[in-house]
Amino acid sequence: MQLDMLVVGAGFAGIYQLYKAREAGMTVRVLEAGEGVGGTWFWNRYPGARCDVESLDYSYSFCRELEEEWEWTERYASQSEILSYINHVVDRFDLRRDIQLNTRVASAHFDEDRALWSVRSEDGEHLEAKFLVMATGQLSVPQKPDLHGLDDFKGQWYHSARWPMEGVDFTGQRVVLIGTGSSGVQMTPIIAAQASQLTVLQRTANFSVPAHNMPFTPESLKAAKARYPERRAMGREAITGVFLNANTKTAAEMTEDERIAELEYRWKGAGGGFRMLRAFADLMSNLQTNHLVAEFARNKIHAVVKDPRKAEILSPKPDLPYGHKRLCGDTHYYETFNRDNVDLVDVKAHPITEITPTGLRTTQGHHELDVIVFATGFDAMTGALLAMDIRGTGGQSLREKWAAGPRTYLGVSIAGFPNLFVIAGPGSPAALSNVVHSIETHVDWISNFIGHSRSKGTRRIEAEQAHEDQWVDHVNEVANQTLYPVGNSWYLGANMPGKPRVFMPYAAGVPAYRRIIEGVAEKNYEGFAQV
Length: 531
Ligand code: N01
What we know:
Layout lengths: L1 E7 L3 H12 L4 E4 L8 H4 L20 H6 L9 H14 L6 E2 L4 E7 L4 E6 L4 E9 L21 E4 L14 E5 L3 H13 L2 E6 L5 E3 L7 H9 L1 H9 L19 H12 L19 H18 L3 H7 L13 E3 L2 H4 L5 E5 L5 E5 L2 E4 L2 E4 L2 E4 L8 H5 L1 E3 L6 H4 L18 E3 L12 H22 L4 E3 L1 H15 L30 H13 L5 E3 L1
Parallel strand pairs: 1-2, 1-6, 2-3, 4-17, 6-18, 7-16, 8-9, 8-16, 9-12, 10-11
Antiparallel strand pairs: 4-5, 5-6, 13-14, 14-15, 19-20
Helix pairs in contact: 1-14, 9-10, 14-16
The structure holds 3-acetylpyridine adenine dinucleotide.
The site of 3-acetylpyridine adenine dinucleotide has 26 residues, from helix 5.
């Protein structure tokens, strides 16, 4: 079958790309590995899963009626509510008939003579399309440590990103939870409330902020919606693509009392979550300012957690800047460690040595267990793309091209891979932003470019090597002016054994990025060969 466009992935990105391609009158199909739409929100069903960007922002903005009719029930939406929303969008715009589920793409090869992408699924189905759009997500390939003995474990084990559809009942169970990123932090209080014993294994302490989630009342939702256009407009001009009431002053421009008041506001109810990251204009560029915020957060942990041993383990070390890893937003995370049935082990000091048939051993001792939960993250940003055998001109494989780390032009296009686009790819600001906003920005831009190409009758559009090289240099240069490229974050690929250590997101922010890509479009898509 030959199509105008094939899209891989039916999460937020693939669904909007389908909508736009259909609007442009193209023949299009979306291939999705899961048995339902929703991408990351289909797979990550672990207890407590919810978004850390406010629901009113973490939603499509392309249709005013959609914004008006959908009624979010909470400030931060739960996984199930987001999944219902995505399904609603798919049905509302009659998109389901072009989405093919249970189809994992194995390979995509560019046929140079015919300027077509030849795509094969793992089941052997073959499709061809002029344009191939990768909407494969940044956090879609789970990473699970290779622990000796897991196969012989007599209990159950689960990964946060492959949670059973029917859920898991932890009542009366002895549970170990490995990992304290966003997933582990969200799960901890819920599992603790059910299990007879929960032991959290932490390798690196991360910073977490109370999310202050709360239900909308009919009045508060109505009031928020009345200001929706203004809210979206402010989000567009915010560095993260979402309005977080950023402080425009550096820490040095404020008095000690003003600094404390600013931080308290961001820690408490009116603030919460990512607002902490916008406490000072120089938070991610000035180590001294960063230390101030980190110290404030450590003091909060010690004030909440009664056992000083646990409080100390939970406090991130001073050599790791605040926000260098994605900040967590929580509901009673630190408080949970005051429960009698919850313990904490520092597995950096006391590494895991093996899984036994009845539990897990660290260098400190053996834990008898019924359940092991892995909240150990993802092969982020490149994992899903490199899982496929993608080959461009001259048969060059993407795996070879990206052996030393991902290289893109503007985070959407790859030299040597014509007519292929990546939504929210490495080299774009998506990972540091409200990703739904970044997705819409990318899809609109890609759709305009494809429309331009079709109106001109060009067969191939392709990033030029020199422009890609310049973009990669620019992304690195910007990153090196920040405090991001330290530690072992997934932004750097450093959470994956053997993955090249490269800071992948573009850190200059969403508005700056948008101006760049709009400028490229205005100059007849500068940096792209169009033949
Ligand atoms: O994964 P992570 P995540 N032994 O990579 C530990 C988004 N998200 O699934 O830090 C022991 O952050 C690892 O330790 P260390 C969000 O963007 C959003 O939690 O590498 N521990 C770390 O503690 C987020 O950033 C939401 O030393 C091991 C943890 O596992 C991203 O997804 C919710 C280990 C992994 O943390 C990823 O979050 C959930 C080992 N061998 C996720 N290997 C919301 O919207 C790894 N770890 C709220």
